[in-house]
Amino acid sequence: xxxxxxxxxxxxxxxxxxxxxxxxxxxxxxxxxxxxxxxxxxxxxxxxxxxxxxxxxxxxxxxxxxxxxxxxxxxxxxxxxxxxxxxxxxxxxxxxxxxxxxxxxxxxxxxxxxxxxxxxxxxxxxxxxxxxxxxxxxxxxxxxxxxxxxxxxxxxxxxxxxxxxxxxxxxxxxxxxxxxxxxxxxxxxxxxxxxxxxxxxxxxxxxxxxxxxxxxxxxxxxxxxxxxxxxxxxxxxxxxxxxxxxxxxxxxxxxxxxxxxxxxxxxxxxxxxxxxxxxxxxxxxxxxxxxxxxxxxx
Length: 298
Ligand SMILES: [Zn+2]
Ligand SMILES: [Zn+2]
Known about the structure:
Elements: H1 2-16, H2 23-29, E1 34-39, E2 42-46, E3 52-56, E4 61-64, H3 69-82, E5 87-91, H4 97-100, E6 110-116, H5 117-130, E7 141-143, E8 146-152, E9 155-161, E10 172-175, E11 180-182, E12 188-189, H6 203-216, E13 222-224, E14 227-228, E15 235-236, H7 239-260, H8 265-269, H9 285-297
Parallel strand pairs: 4-5, 5-6, 6-7, 11-13, 12-14
Antiparallel strand pairs: 1-2, 2-3, 3-4, 8-9, 9-10, 10-11, 13-15
One zinc ion (ZN) is lined by residues 50, 96, 98-99, 185, 226-227.
C-alpha cells in the first residue's frame, strides 16, 4: 500500500505538473491512510503521527498506539468492517501526543488500555498542564519494570521495559507468536530523534535498552518504528537497533569531544551530520542539545 500511494502521488504530481511538496498535493493526500499486513494478522497503519500496529482476528483485536482522534477513527472503521467484537486491548508505547491523542476515539470501544506506569503519569501530567484531561483515555493497566504479558485470542502480547530511553516510560511491544515488535520511539529509523528530557529521557541508558532488545529478540523478529527518515521505512529488523545505538553513542562522543575542544553548545548544535553516523541526516540540534544537557547539566 505504501508503494501504491507513492506511485499515485508521483503520477498525479507528474500529470498535473506539480512538485511533490506542493500544497495542493498535500491537500489531496492529507486524509490518505495506509494499512499493511506484516505477519499473522498483525499489520501497520500509517497516516499522521507515530506508526500504529494492529492485530485483527475473530478471537481478538489489539491496537498499539493511536496517533490522533481522526486517524484512530479511520482505523476503527476498518476494524469494524472486519469484526463485530469489542477491541480487546489498546497499548501505548509511550505518552507523546502523536501516539496517544487518538486514545479518546477508543472510549467505550476497548476493554483494556496498557502502558508503562511512567507513560501513564506523563500522559496525565501533560494533559493537566494543557487543561485537556477530559480528552484523554488513560491506561488502566500498568507495570513498573521487566515485562507484562497479556493473552488476546491466540496471541500473547508482552511489554518490555529496561529503563529510560526516549522518555522514562517507553515499552517495546512484542506480538510473540507473530514475532513482531513495535519499538515506538525507541527507534528513529535514520531520522534525528526527539529526546524528551522533560519526561526523563536518558541517552546513556537508551543505548543499554537497545542492546538488551537486540539480545531479547531474534533475527526473524520484524521491527516496527514510530518514525523514519526520508527514503526509509517504519519497519525493519533488529540490526536497526544496533545502527541506532551506534548513532546515539556517536552523538555523545561528538558533544564530549567538542566541549573538550572549547566549542559551545550553540556551535555544536549547528552540525548537520554526526561523524560515524552519516545515515542520520539533517539538522542535529535537538540531539546535540539533549546530549549536552545529559553530559554537563544534569
Ligand atoms: Zn512519535
Ligand atoms: Zn515520542
